[in-house]
Amino acid sequence: MECKNLTGAEIVVKALTELNIEVVFGYSGSYAMPMIEALHKSGIRFIQPTSECSAAHAADGYYRASGKIAGVMTTSGPGATNLITGIATAYMDSVPMLALTANVPTYKLGKDSFQEVDITGIATPITKYAHIIKSAEELEGELKKAYALSLSGRTSPVLIDVPYDVLKETGEYKNLPIPAYRGTNLNLSSVRRAAELINSATLPGILAG
């Protein structure tokens, strides 16, 4: 069912709900407040650690412990850049993560505005996909695309950057399909069996490929 006249922040939360993301770690900040307020009205659990860096590492650890992808959400500028170490850790260890950063309004982009930063440019080398949203209508499709990419093949973090005015403007939620993706589909029992064989071998050798 299509939903009209939702704010960008509400579209974000509706998409996260449809993607079965149960937990979002984050740290509040002025430009991120529309998303955080929408989260509090949903069934998604919002956990605020002591810093944005802690939030990114928590989202990483959540996947390692549960096998479920988590969101991480922060405001613009230093809030966004504080995610980088946690995102880089997840990228190097192939941990999927959906990072959502707020940014200054679109009319302030590229003008060295207070707490403006090109977070997509910074995050591109350590994510599978980093994209800045320019309209509320774009949000649903991009979030679902990013989610599918995060879980496809070698799992990795992705980042979606949303300017403040996009979070406030209204748009339509069209219930777009989630793009098909193919994960690694590891068979844990086979992994354990392989480990047992290697551990018990006198002269172990692996021919991979």
From TrEMBL:
Coiled coil: none annotated. Signal peptide: none annotated. GO terms for cellular component: acetolactate synthase complex. GO terms for biological process: isoleucine biosynthetic process; L-valine biosynthetic process. GO terms for molecular function: acetolactate synthase activity; flavin adenine dinucleotide binding; thiamine pyrophosphate binding. Residues 7-120 form the Thiamine pyrophosphate enzyme N-terminal TPP-binding domain. It holds the Pfam family TPP_enzyme_N. InterPro entries: THDP-binding, Thiamin_PyroP_enz_TPP-bd_dom, TPP_enz. SUPFAM superfamilies: Thiamin diphosphate-binding fold (THDP-binding). Belongs to the TPP enzyme family. This is Thiamine pyrophosphate-binding protein. It comes from Candidatus Stercoripulliclostridium merdigallinarum.
